Amino acid sequence: SQKIEQNSEALNIQEGKTATLTCNYTNYSPAYLQWYRQDPGRGPVFLLLIRENEKEKRKERLKVTFDTTLKQSLFHITASQPADSATYLCAPEGRGTGFQKLVFGTGTRLLVSP
Amino acid sequence: TAGITQAPTSQILAAGRSMTLRCTQDMRHNAMYWYRQDLGLGLRLIHYSNTAGTTGKGEVPDGYSVSRANTDDFPLTLASAVPSQTSVYFCASSRLAPNVLDTGELFFGEGSRLTVL
Question: May I ask the CATH class of domain B4-116?
């Protein structure tokens, strides 16, 4: 069955450093993958979408890579700020499940210290 | 623009009682979804709707029902609540339906926290 893995342990980094979050998936090949940000007590908010034919996508301080050979997506936040502290969810397209086009990982919590 | 509005924000419910969680969107999106989020399990799809008048089952549909009488509203009903339905429920919408290649981004509401005792 499809499996999406994100590091369940929180990632603690210093302000100004680059945060790198990992999303691994197994047993299938999604056509695209989305990343969301979720703040405590709030709903997820869309950040970026990357397709299988795109190796890298950027948006301001955010960069996402998509390695279909490794079955992995990396999410980078450069020049991190305390305001970047949140939980980040990856959501590969759930190909093969028919109706369920997005399958969410459990998320990785990022803590950026001043 | 409000986007997705969910109600109630939180609710405590006795086991065996029924409850309807309300969801309204003002973006004229075709598709709507209900997810539940539990610690360690992430977001799991309960039910979805490609368009008004159609609904489908997600990953964890048992104990829940939905209806889509119009484009804007997508209520989720628990007919007889059980403690395992204690969770945070998120309604979401997307411009495109999941029966096309790419739904585009999902827009989420702020969630309804339900506790079943």
Answer: mainly beta
Cα–Cα distance between B34 and B43 in angstroms, integer? 10
- Structure tokens, B77: 């009903």
Would an 8 Å CB–CB cutoff place B87 in contact with chain A?
no
The full set of domain ranges for chain A reads 26-37+44-81
Mean pLDDT over A50-70 rounds to 92
% of residues, chain A, pLDDT over 70: 92
Which of A64, A36, A37 lies closest to A50 in space, CA to CA? Answer: A64
Yes or no: say if A49 and A66 are a contact pair by the CB < 8 Å rule: no
Among residues A40, A26, A59, which one has the least CA distance to residue A110?
A40
Q: Which two tokens stand for residue A109?
A: 């919590």
Domain boundaries, chain B: 4-116
Q: Measured between beta carbons, which residues in chain A are less than 8 angstroms from residue B105?
A: 34, 46, 49
- For residue A33, the chain B residues in CB contact (below 8 A) are none
